Give the backbone structure.
Amino acid sequence: MYDLVVENAKLYPMAGDALVSPAKVMAVRDGRIAALAESRDDLDGPADVVIDAAGRVLLPGFVDCHTHAVFAGDRSEEHRMRLAGQSYEDIARAGGGIASTVRAVRAASEAALIDASQPRLQALMREGVTSVEIKSGYGLDLANELKLLRATKALGERLPLDISATFLGAHAVPHDRSKSEYLGEVIEIMLPEVAREKLASAADIYVENIAFDNDDLLRLAAAADKAGLRLRAHTDQLSNMGGTALAASLGALSCDHLEFSNTDDVAAMARHGTIAVLLPGAFYFLRESKKPPIAALRAARVPMAVASDLNPGTSPVASLLTCLHFATTLFGLSSDEGLLGITINAARAMGRGAEVGSLEIGKSANFCIWDIPSPDYLCYQLGGLTPAARFFQGQQQ
């Protein structure tokens, strides 16, 4: 007996390629994909519920593998300043940027953070997202980093959404602390408490001239490994400091941004199995001109993921489909590369590839039915696209 069977579907598993499957039927039991078949006659039992997809497209639920979706306040004033000619670095060094959001987060309660952040996550869900990664990093002290991560955990319990939390205490250096002093607090005080409360599955660091360097990356990576957390890294967004190659050599799940990455960085990612996470929303919003080395990544067969980077300062884009469109039109990804970038490759960037991101037997039954000609249509049309039906762990939402 199956809980659910979807039949007469154009089924695109996204399990390594973006091709349509010969299977037209998918069966679900206990929240997981139990069978894929060409017809219902090939199944070994009946179902409680049968849905006729009527030839519509069946895709895995989308995975947004890099967001900062839990925050307070906004930074619309900084957008006005950028439109007037000031750079991201200028604004950050003048006390804006991340520091501005830190002040808003510190002033907000955990309940206020949850209430402010839930609509952003619901916007992602309306476009077919079923898994999302959320980073901390707007607290920059123990109490407020824990507050962000606890709010993230609460949102995962409140919403039909698979949330993975990442500890990003090493996001910026508070203005009243030295870098060495603050990083020591991140490693010696914050990270052990995050691990003790099991509030995150990974640790991240922003390697950039205005933030942290490779020595800091080495220290954080060692501490994260000791605490049982996987490593991720923001690298090569504004300059190349060697962080991508180093993070890859340290076993990072992903390196994210990569606008200034070079062939050595790409080779390191290929050698160590690190996912390249592309963030075209930030590229667009900051009006950058230097693009990630897509041709080199493609040639080296480095898997590319696409994420929204949803955050208040550099990518206030609560739309993974918009970023999919940007990735194809601005960065030159093919439709297949873009679609794999928001499914299986994004799941791998989160360390969740065995559970979500593709339609395979044994994986969580997170999927959507789309009334579109083919998945390519999601790369083509900008805005106005929502699935005909969204399922999370086998339950229609």
User: Anything to note?
Assistant: The domain at 62-349 is CATH 3.20.20.140 (TIM Barrel). The chain has a mean pLDDT of 96. The first helix runs from residue 76 to 83. The two ends are 22 Å apart (CA to CA).
